[in-house]
């Protein structure tokens, strides 16, 4: 979808034109009440079946045979929506590090424009984890009558100083790569590799590394499995993502505060009318359970559920069997179809 006039951003800048890449799966039923909208996290894309398998896909809880599933790529990404690799106009160079600050509310404004373009008056379920959960919360506050159910996982009402510090550490790694400042599509790749290795420490847990990366040779002095794993994960991200988008989206996450201009986070959350399920992960050090407990206390009638997982923050992508069980308990049969 294209917005030729663009969007006036929360900062006051105008981002124009704007393109929003999105995927839909399944068929909208005659009653138009089977819509599931997925808000994706930092480095994901609009193809939710590719990265949330086990929860979305044939035979999964959200099966396209039953649901009309929508997922839009977020502003600032490198997967089709307007971002740092996008030109300001048809003849200009990509914006690279001059890409303007986009907030969570700006991302939601793009989602809202797409919802209206698709003519979807009601959304049965709005779901997202991490940065996706931040978008979902903001949208449910902004348009409280649109969403029947809200499911947020491993997310928060305001990005924490701890989370911002992790993001800044990653950006410093990218800025330390001289190629980032050259403004080319491949700029900052070495820095992004280091950034991803740093981020992974916040996404997983001590126990997860102990189980998967422990050495079997007590005499080893170099070439440790954990070191190779960090290198491998950094290389994987470099092969599929872009450093300028990584910087832009981490800055977006830092802006998240549902209470900005609304008195407080607690007052803002009280606007949510959707039946809400808030899910935490026991070993999540990036978005610890206290943050989800805050959401559950202040969203009217919210249900709180804690998942026991050794995978840390990434548990919201991995523990799909547990999430399915929690969803089955949350939905009453009359609301599912």
From TrEMBL:
Active site: 130, 284, 313
GO MF term list: homoserine O-acetyltransferase activity
Pfam families: Abhydrolase_1
Protein purpose: Transfers an acetyl group from acetyl-CoA to L-homoserine, forming acetyl-L-homoserine.
Domain AB hydrolase-1: 35-317
Protein family: Belongs to the AB hydrolase superfamily. MetX family.
Binding site for substrate: 196, 314
Keywords, sorted A to Z: Acyltransferase, Amino-acid biosynthesis, Cytoplasm, Methionine biosynthesis, Transferase
NCBIfam families: homoserO_Ac_trn
Metabolic or biological pathway: Amino-acid biosynthesis; L-methionine biosynthesis via de novo pathway; O-acetyl-L-homoserine from L-homoserine: step 1/1
Protein name, per record: Homoserine O-acetyltransferase
């Amino acid at each position: 979808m294209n917005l030729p006039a663009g969007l006036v951003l929360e900062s006051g800048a105008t981002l124009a034109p704007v393109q929003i890449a999105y995927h839909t799966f399944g068929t909208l039923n005659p009653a138009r009440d089977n819509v599931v909208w997925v808000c994706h996290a930092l480095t994901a894309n609009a193809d939710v079946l590719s990265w949330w398998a086990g929860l979305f896909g044939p035979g999964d809880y959200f099966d396209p045979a039953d649901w009309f599933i929508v997922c839009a790529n977020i502003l600032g990404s490198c997967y089709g929506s307007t971002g740092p690799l996008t030109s300001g106009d048809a003849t200009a160079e990509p914006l690279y590090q001059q890409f303007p600050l986009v907030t969570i509310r700006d991302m939601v404004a793009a989602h809202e424009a797409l919802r209206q373009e698709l003519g979807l008056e009601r959304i049965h379920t709005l779901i997202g984890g991490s940065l996706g959960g931040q978008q979902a919360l903001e949208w449910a506050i902004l348009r409280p009558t649109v969403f029947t159910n809200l499911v947020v996982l491993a997310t928060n009402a305001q990005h924490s100083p701890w989370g911002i510090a992790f993001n800044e550490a990653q950006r410093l790694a990218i800025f330390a790569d001289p190629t980032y400042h050259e403004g080319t599509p491949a700029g900052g790749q070495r820095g992004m590799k280091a950034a991803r290795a740093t981020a992974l420490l916040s996404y997983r847990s001590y126990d997860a590394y102990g189980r998967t990366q422990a050495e079997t040779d007590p005499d080893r002095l170099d070439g440790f499995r954990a070191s190779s794993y960090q290198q491998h994960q950094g290389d994987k991200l470099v092969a599929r993502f872009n450093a300028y988008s990584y910087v832009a989206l981490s800055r977006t996450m830092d802006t998240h505060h549902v209470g900005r201009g609304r008195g407080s986070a607690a007052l803002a959350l009280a606007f949510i009318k959707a039946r809400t399920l808030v899910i935490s992960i026991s070993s999540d050090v990036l978005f610890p359970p206290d943050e989800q407990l805050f959401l559950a206390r202040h969203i009217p009638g919210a249900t709180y559920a804690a998942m026991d997982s050794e995978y840390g923050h990434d548990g919201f992508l991995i523990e799909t069997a547990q999430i399915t069980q929690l969803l089955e308990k949350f939905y009453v049969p009359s609301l599912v179809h």
